[in-house]
Amino acid sequence: MADESGADATSTSTTVSDAAAAAEAFLATLTDEQRGQVVYDYDDETRTTSWSNFPVTFVERAGLNLADLTEEQQGAAMEVLAALLDDEGYATVAAIIGGDQYLADNSSSTESSLGQYYIALFGEPSTTEAWEVQFGGHHLGINATLDGSADAITFAPTHLGVQPAVYTNEDGEEVQPFEGIYTDAFAFFDSLTAEQQATLTSGEVSMCAPGDTCGFATGEGLSGADLTDEQAELLLELIANWTGLADDETTEATREEIEATLDETVIAWSGETTYDMSTGDGISFSISGPDVYVAFQAQQGSAGADVDGVTTSGWGHVHTIYRDPTNDYAGSVTQQAASGMGGPGGGEMPGAPGDVS
């Protein structure tokens, strides 16, 4: 299903224009009934309640299930993502989708949500007014708001997840969806002094999950103010795995906002301190500041998605959330009730009992 490549536009306006054109082309493949199911008003409450890090059997997604579309319609839907994301961002999304399909084909899991992905548009595609592309499924929840009037794109909130850590695709190629994230995370960790690492691991890793009315408390850990310029650069490169999914201009604009308040940002880490997926139970970390919130959580348990010789727990089962405290709209009482989550900054952890992801 995910066989296109990202457009790698360099400007925000080009991305907005390309994505709007791709979305219009996708809509042109649909019947009137399907179009009515995929396009919502921009301010529809569903926009805040239909993204999740829980399976689609737990939290209903908005829009159309790609499994119910023709091959032409599926291809047109993926072209929307290809226009929105750069090559690296699209490759990450494709690898996540491929991992879910690998589990559906090879594991003993009976979870029916594997392989189901939904697309919805909030507002009509436009180069002059705000609209949103929402695309999600088992280990993915992309929310991209595109506003041509402000020349801005934001991916907050977004969920990227992975299971398994490494798999072999249908072409016999080895795929590791989070290789880039793991590499950047340990490049940052390894750049720290022993004293800094001790401070980093003394804090409590937090999770502001979908549906939570998160207060975004920074908590304890290593402060951005205590980093060298080189360490701060490595931290920003790690954050860019979530904020840098689109073009260079959008990535740089978001980076500048985060960098401006990096001194007030706190990082906490737990789990392994060496990048070796053959040992231990993986890592968890959170990055919380005035302009960024990232949570990376290793899930202990495969929830029945076991494959011999493949890591489907810990290192190989991860949920991540990216949110923007200055532009966050996920505080939905409706979804808290639907998904069993609640409470500022907390909620039920992803991967809790009953989460078959």
From TrEMBL:
Biased composition (Gly residues): 340-349
Source superkingdom: Bacteria
InterPro entries registered for this protein in UniProt: DUF3500 (IPR021889)
Region ranges (Disordered): 334-357
Coiled coil location: none
Matching PANTHER family: DUF3500 DOMAIN-CONTAINING PROTEIN (PTHR37489)
Name of the protein this chain belongs to: DUF3500 domain-containing protein
Organism the protein comes from: Nocardioides marinquilinus
Origin organism lineage: Bacteria, Bacillati, Actinomycetota, Actinomycetes, Propionibacteriales
